Every structure is written in structure tokens, then in C-alpha cells.
Amino acid sequence: MTVDLAASEGPVLHGANGALYGLSDDGVPGDAVLAPLRITGVSQKPEGGAQHPNGDALTVAESFFRNGGGEINVLLQDVYARWPYEELGIDDYLPRVDGIVREVAARPDRDRFVYVPFNEPDQIWYRLDAPDPAEYEAGRDRFLRDWRTVYRRIRALHPDARIAGPNEAAYHARLLTDFLAFARREDVLPQVMTWHELDSSSLRDFQAHHDEYRSIERELGVGPLAVNIDEYGNRRDLSVPGQLVQWVAMFERNKVYAHQAYWDAAGNLSGNVVRMNVPNGGWWFFRWYAGLTGDTVRVTPPEPHTVDTLQGLASLDTGRRQTQVLLGGAPGDADVVVRNIAPDVFGRTVVATVAEAAWSGYEGPHAAPRVLARTKVRVAGDGSVTVPLRGLRRMSAYRIVLTPAGRGTPAPAHVPWSASYEAEDAAVTGGRVRTHGTVGDANGYAASGTRNVESLGSPSGKVDLTVTVPADGAYDLAILYGNGSGGPATQRLSIDGGAPVTVTYPSTQNGAHGGRKELQVELAAGTHVLTLAADDGETTLDRLDLTARTGPPSTVYEATLAETVGAPSYDYSSSAGTGTGALVLGAGDGAVFDVYAPCDGYFTVVPRASSEVELALHGATVTAVPGRPLRLYLAAGNNRVTVTAGQAALRALEVSGDGSQAGVLVQGAATAVLAGGARPVDCAHAPGGRRVTGLGGAPAGTARFTVDAPRPGRHLLVVHYAHDDRRDNGHAYNTDIVSRTADITVGDGAPLRVTFKNTWSRDDFWTLAVPVDLVAGANTVTFANADGPAPDLARIELGRIVG
Q1: How distant is the alpha carbon of residue 531 from its chain centre?
Q2: In the sheet where 637-644 sits, what is the strand order?
């Protein structure tokens, strides 16, 4: 793969990070995972639309816009309940359009909405994909008349409205030619041209589609119009970094916008967010994409426009003196050759840093991507650098960062021993191997190696997996699994036939919707047999990863790769340590780090800076002395940490620990004072063995906890909750889970409305962290909801953010 830094493609658009029904409610997904991605657009239903139970455009607008979101496509036909949409005629549709447009047009931010009058008209209502010419022409003429009618109605109510279309389910040059000619003649051209790319063949054909479309525009004297591929990808692509990079590379290269498809549940950014605030591998890929700055430059892959091959995109920022390359999609080895490295920008020696974002499942957490290599490289006489990549994994994406090399030697990457084992390669008893997520089964769920082992619920069901480890010690065992049992499922894990321990798997959407269970095992050097045997429920097994544990998790977040505030400068005079230099902060400047925590708890945070800096986290601030550890309470998942200074050179933020609970205030369900319909219920799966149910609703159930805070200040309130609220919309096209809300009141303060995402079952307890302020001494924390049912609660925890 070659990267030509002298061949600019124009400023980075970041257009391919959108999502269809990526948001379900205000707060789902959480701000901390939404803000870093700087999403350019989402597609949602009209407010009150009947197609899905949530995802209303105006409801999600506040969270989307406050987190840096761009624009919202409003899918007008999603006002209807059925799929395909009930065809009641244009006279029925127009009054619905009127109501939607009036509501949007009355908003002060109305210009950030785009109206999509029709969705997939080639298949729905008009049959524009009909092979028979006469049938096509009849449908076309009716569609064009209706397009003109609806377009003019929208513009009459919202004169400056932006309108998108025709929004076909697939690319059709015949229709686009007729549509553009008609729209130009009748003065009803869309401001955004949309169609869908929903087949693996799109990875091969999109470039030809785009080039042909642009030629149609030129022939007709139209545009160029903005293009939004507002549905792309299949189930096997979503959440998979190595698949996503193939799609994003071709969309960014052509500077078009694109939204990932909605195949399952709303509110998880099309499969890239676990629970409400936890990144998976796909999220980290999009975080990398959001971090590209400057211009994209030409990337030539080994096999352009080919399905499931090594593809990539790259950026050059001469001001920051950085080049970033994102690539993936094929296994094996590759050399990435970066050409035309300007000596006045990078000098004669660079530091090359390589990191991996792996596939962790749709519901599997992924820590900050591990750095695989960090080396000083001499630029060749022809102005090139070759970065060798060995042992690439097909489902992973990789990032290469080149920065100028200064004095000193960069710290080598710490890569502990690890090995992966496919469950289907084990000795399988009482189960069966299933293949899915292939090119031929593109809408099957992704699976490592395209296979997993299912039907292990019978008493004899088990897998015996032979593993070999290099040394005595502790190992992190990560199990990629699926659990569609409708509640937590368990298996018995034994090593070499020893006493079994119980492994509990939280629910996933279904047996193929992969999650990731993490635990520790002690192994002696040599070969062992790990047995996972059926216990309660049915668990699908995909892959097991073993990694040598060398101590508590520790991550170095490099300042030169952080999101910036203001206009800091970049200093590469030293390559020591992390090897990517320092971010020089002045007044008004800041660095925002996305810090991952595997659980709620206290972690050690150390800023590497030349002088004092101030850290801001969850509304709390603390002054940090260089090199002196801070004890900070982090929420499970992503945490936005902002570092500012009057004047300081900031090299990195180091975060380590397992999430200590020392000093955390804990109140279980049994300590709550209940009123109304709230009542305690024993529950084996709830932390502490009891849950509070009947909160909110009628009669208005409430729960009040009293906590004694040793010190006042900003705390994180961690709520352990569960609920499985769903709405049957009359079609099983998507999983129609819905969220619940609760009003949380601390002391005499104003109530705070908080949204709790569905946990896949009533017996799966998740955590949600809410920043609150406590006074020294007794504090009451009350849960209520006068508007409907609240989730069940098992316990609350409060940790002072600065411990």
C-alpha cells in the first residue's frame, strides 16, 4: 500500500461517520461516546413517527447538537407504522408532511435539518426498479409528480429548507438520469443527492457508481450536488473495524457523506457503542477517523475496488506535522510505503507509531487501542518511509502515525504475549458450528473467522480448547460470545479437568450478537485444556483470547494525538518516552483525552508535563503537579478529560489501575426508603441480591437513599439498574427496545431527568454514571418518575471524582 503525501485530495471531510437511527433518546448513547466522534449527520424519524418506538429527530436533536453533531436527516415516510410503508396515497401523505415541516420550521435550529421526502421509492410505492420498461415509466411518472408536489409543499412551509433524494435502496443510473432532468426542468432539485449502498458488492462498485453519477450531472448541467449515501453496510460490517475502514476509505476519498445502516437496535451508533457509554472496536476506529486533520492524500491499495481487501485512507497536517494512515480489511503481512515526505515538515527522521483497533463484538468493550510498535525511522533518499506490518488481522483496523523525530529514543511498545483460539477449532460436544457473516451472507452477524459454535445449551454441550502458554502466571481470558437466552447465562469453566468455576454471560440481543466476557486465569507454562461446559441458559462461543497479565492495566495517551481546544503548538524536539513530542499549551488552549475505564472506580492518573496543569473531569477540576499521581473516579467506558495550563508542554496522560472501590459510598436496595408502588424484590442476579421495582408509574413509586459524604464536592453517582421495556411496532424488522427515564433529586436540588437504555433483559444489571454534587454529611438521593415507569434499581454507588 502506498501513501503519496504530495497528492492532496482536499480537506478531511469526516463525512462517513453518520448513522441511521444512531441515537434513540436524549442521552442514548451517552455524551462521552458521542462527542469525540464529531458526527456529521444522522438519519432519524419525524417526531412522533410510528415506524419505530424511538429515535425521534427532535427528541435526539439536543444531545446530538450539544455534542458537536452536524445535521439531522428527517425521514418523512417513517411517520407511517408499517414496513413497507402503508400506501394510502399522496392525499393522505401531504397533511402528515405539513405537520412535520411546520414543527421543524418553527425551531431556531431549523437549518440543521434535512428533509428526506421518500425512502427507497425504487422498492416502495413506486416500483422504480421494475425491469419492464412500461411498468418503470408508469411508476417513474407518478413518483416525479409526487416528488414535485411534496418538494413544493415543504418549500412553501420552510422556504430555505434543504431537501434530499431520491433516496433509492440501490444505485440506478436510469432513474437518476430521469430524476435529475425532471428536477432541473421543474426547479425541484434536491440540495443533497441520496441513495443507499447495502451490498458487499458496493465495496467494488461504489466508485463506478459515483463516477457515473457525476458524469450524469455534468451532462445535464446540474450540480455538483452534495452526496449522502445515507444507508451503507451490512450486519457483518457494523462494529468491525477492518470492514468499516473499507467503506469509510472510499466515501472519504470521494468526499461524500454516508450513514451506517440500522439493522438492529437504535441508540448504539449502528453497533459501535456498548450499553450507553462503552466503546467497542468500531467506536475506536471512528475515533481515529475523527482525529484525522489537514488534507487527505492519495492512498493506493494493492487491489483497489475489491471486496474484503486491504484498503485505507490517510491525512497530512503540515501545521501539526503529522501524517496518519488508517488501514485494514485483510489478514497477513503488508508494507505501507509513505512517499514524498517533505524534509521541511518532517526532517530526515520520523517516529512511526502503529496501533490496532480489534473487533470486540457488537456488545464487547474495547480498551484504548494498543500500540504495537513505536520506532525511529530514517527517511530514504527518495523521500519515502516503509512501515512493515506483520500478522494483520482481517477484522482489525490499524493506525500509523508519522511525526518528526527529535532527540532521544522513543519508548518501545509494550506488547504482552497473546494468542487467539477459534471456538470452532476446539473439540465440540453437543453443539454445532455455524457459518455466517460472509460475503454471501452479508446480513448475517459478524463472527471471528466467520464461524461460531452454537446450540450448547444441552447438558452435554461443551467445548474443549487446547491452549499453550509460554510462562507461569496470570492471564487475561476474553471470551467472545452471544447470549440470547433472555437473561444471564452461565457456563462452567475448568482447566485440565480441575474444579470448575462459573462464568456468567450478560444477555446480548441474540445468540449471534457478540459480546465479550473478560476474566483472569492462572496457568503454568505449557499446554492446557480449557473446557467451557453448559450450565444455565445457552451461550454461543466465537473466540477465546489469552493475554499475559503483566500488572494492572496501564495506558499512555499521547498529547499530540489528543483533541485540541484553542491553538496549541507542537514540539517534536524530543522523541523520548512516547515518542510523539509534546503539545504546547498556552492561555485558552487545551487537550481533551478520551480515557477508557474497564469499570466504575478509582484509577491513577499522571500528567507528563513541564509545569502544573489543570484537569477537568465530569465537572470537577484539580490542579496536577507534573509526575505526581492523582486518584480520580472514572465511569465505566469513555471519560472526557480536559487538560489546560497557563503555559506548559504536555507530553501525555498516563492512566493505570483496575478500578479501586476503596472510599466509594454504597447503598443497596435494602437501604432505600420506598413509597407509592415501589417495593423490594429478591433477585439472584442483582448486585446485593435484591432489586427495587415499581418505581415511577402509577401509583408513583419512589426510592430515597441516604448517603453520608465525608467530604463535599463533585461525585459520580453510579446507578445499577435493569429493565427490558419494548414496543411491538407490528413488524420484526428491527429490535424495538425502548429506554426508561427517572428523575434523580439530590438533597433539595432540582430533579435531573436521566435516560436508561434497555438492558436486554430484566435480570441484566448495567451501570449509568451521573455527576452530582454532595455536601459533607447526610445527603438524600431520590428516584422518581411521574410520567411513566422507571427502571428497577439494585444499588447506588457514589465516588468523589477527585479522591
Answers
A1: 32
A2: 563-565, 590-597, 637-644, 613-617, 620-624
DSSP-derived pairing of the beta strands 613-617 and 620-624: antiparallel
Maximum separation of any 2 CA atoms in the chain, in Å = 79
What is the Cα–Cα distance from 256 to 197, expressed in whole angstroms? 13
Question: Which stretches of 574-612 are assigned E, i.e. beta strand?
Answer: 582-586, 590-597, 601-609
Cell of 724: 427490558
Residue closest to 141 by CA, chosen among 191, 178, 186, 173: 178
CA proximity to 650, closest of 721, 562, 711: 562
Count of C-beta atoms within a 10 Å radius of residue 566: 12
Q: How far apart are CA 280 and CA 266, in angstroms?
A: 16
Q: Rounded to an integer, what distance in angstroms lies between the CA atom of residue 192 and that of residue 595?
A: 36
**In whole angstroms, what separates CA 770 from the centre of its chain?**
20
- Contact 681/694 with Cβ under 8 angstroms? no
| Residue 250: exposure state from Cβ atoms within 10 A (0-12, 13-18, ≥19) | buried
Contact 447, 361 (CB under 8 A): no
Please tell me the number of Cα atoms within 13 Å of 670 on its side-chain side. Answer: 7
pLDDT in tens, 695-739: 999 889 999 999 999 999 999 999 999 999 999 888 888 999 999
* Secondary structure element (H or E) that encloses residue 557, with its range: strand 554-558
Answer yes or no: are the C-beta atoms of 10 and 344 closer than 8 Å.
Answer: no
Say how far apart CA 33 and CA 562 lie, in whole Å.
15
Question: Residue 513 is placed in which grid cell?
Answer: 450478537
Give just the sign of the alpha carbon dihedral 467, 598, 69, 165.
positive
First-residue to last-residue Cα distance in the chain: 48
| Alpha carbon 504 to chain centroid, angstroms | 25
Q: What is the pLDDT of residues 733-788, one digit of tens each?
A: 899 999 999 999 999 999 999 999 999 999 999 999 999 999 999 999 999 999 99
Q: Can you tell me the distance from the alpha carbon of 689 to that of 423, in angstroms, rounded to the nearest whole number? A: 33
Q: Cβ(677)–Cβ(756) under 8 Å? A: no
Q: Is 427 exposed, middle or buried (0-12, 13-18, 19+ CB in 10 A)?
A: exposed
Q: Which residues contact 441 (CB under 8 A, 6 or more apart)?
A: 236, 435
Please provide the DSSP assignment of 294-361 as one string: SEEEEEE-SSTT-TTS-EEEEEEETTTTEEEEEEES--EEEEEEEE---HHHH-SEEEEEEEEE----
CB 518 within 8 A of CB 478: yes
The dihedrals phi and psi of 800, each to the nearest 5 degrees, come to -65, 130
Query: 745 - beta bridge partners?
Result: 782
- Cell numbers that stand for 783 in this block: 428516584
pLDDT in tens, 280-339: 999 999 999 999 999 999 999 999 999 999 999 999 999 999 999 999 999 999 999 999
Distance CA 294, CA 316 (A): 5
